[in-house]
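Incident log, structure service

09:12 report received: a user says their structure output differs between two submissions of the same chain.
09:20 pulled the input from the user's history:
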Amino acid sequence: MWMMVPFILNSLLNFVVSLLVAKFLGPAEYGRFVLALSVAVVVQTLVFDWLRLAATRFYSERDRLERPQIRATLDASFAALAALVILVAFLLWALRLDLPLSRDLAALAVGVSITNALFDTATALIRARFHDRAYGALVIAKNVLAFTLTVGGAFLFRSANVALVGMMVSVAGCLLVARGEIVDPNAGFQNAERALARRFLAYGLPIIIAAVLYQSIPLINRTLLSQQHGFAEVGQLSLAFETGIRIVGAIGSAVDVILFQIAVHTEKTAGADAARAQISRNLGVVFAVVTPAVAGCWLILPSFETLFVPENFRGPFAHYFAIMTPALFGFAMMNYGVNTAFQLAHKLTPLIIAALVALLANSLAVLLLPATADATRFAYAQSISTMSGLVALVAMLFLLKPMWPRARDILGASVAAGAMLMIGAPMRLWEPCILTMLLQVALGVAVYGAIAYAFDVASVRSLVGPKIMARLRQPQLQ
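09:34 re-ran on a clean worker, output below:
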């Protein structure tokens, strides 16, 4: 469970860094920054992410000691792919193609994709071994360096280029700090096996294709938006979306990092049926966590914008964030809930189908929705596409053996979130301030927690009830 602490800390610090970078760069330069990051994310996912997935699925402390060929294959594959990506980047630079990004930003996007992929793969290897302390040290080192270099570069130079360079250097520096935990004995390139690489790629390829399709949606939207309304509007829309994704991603990832590893361990030790039962429980837990998180974001939005959002982003931030709350819910449920059911069953084609549905829905929305003077049309398209993908994916759960969450979890979480919204909505009209936000959070947690306890959502009453009764009896025993 302690693995969740550095995971949440990492996401929280990333969130702070993102807001500060936006503040110091301003909407237009931040628009260039996030468009370059969007390119970097797509390149990273397409080229490298199968290695991270393989590390999560096939690597462990026992494998580190007994099967060094697994790590050797991962390392050799990463090195070969990094060399290939750098070569392609130089070719694109030499050809002087007319791209939405300037040549220097495109080159930096490639560099960011490599360093971020290296960090994500390294943290996946450490998490697979359940080395909480090493993971925490890596996260802290990365975020201290990111705050110093990325935010510092944005503050001093007001340049997206400098901020991206700071991002790359911060990742490289933190990996040097944790190199003792990252290096494996007997994992030289000579131990790499092509058969293992093919197995890893076969496992990860459907997930990667689906992820790239999903990631292409904001990239396409931002590119079109930059051409129609300029980079400043890209920055306004992107800060709202990226902030929401970081919030729900922090919460969802913190839960998923434990739940998915438990499901994988259950499959190895107790068999496929037990693993499916665990995934069913996991789906209920994820829904019970994500639903109030997204609802709570909407409730505190006025105060959050006043307290944390840079002044030159206010107004558009709340407008776009509210429109894209369905996209945040769909993103979290797919990535930290429904996807894992298909991953564990090794039936990954539905992930690609759902991603294609989302891409088609986005394209139709952009084409058919009325044109707007700002990014509103693209914000609606983002929510329509993400929810379309989620609906398609949930519908395809019928292709698997029974792997449904308890009806009590879904119903109880829905009722609790609805009550939280009804009681908290009037407070959105109060003066936005820290006290208002704290009261909203406290009331929301109390209302949701009480109803979730009554419904025994995610077995919370079964887990917490006996402990509460034991505490109540303790004074009597003394």
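09:41 both user submissions now match this output. Likely a transient worker issue. Closing.
09:42 reviewer note: Residues 4-58 form the longest helix (55 residues). The chain is about 85% helix and 0% strand.
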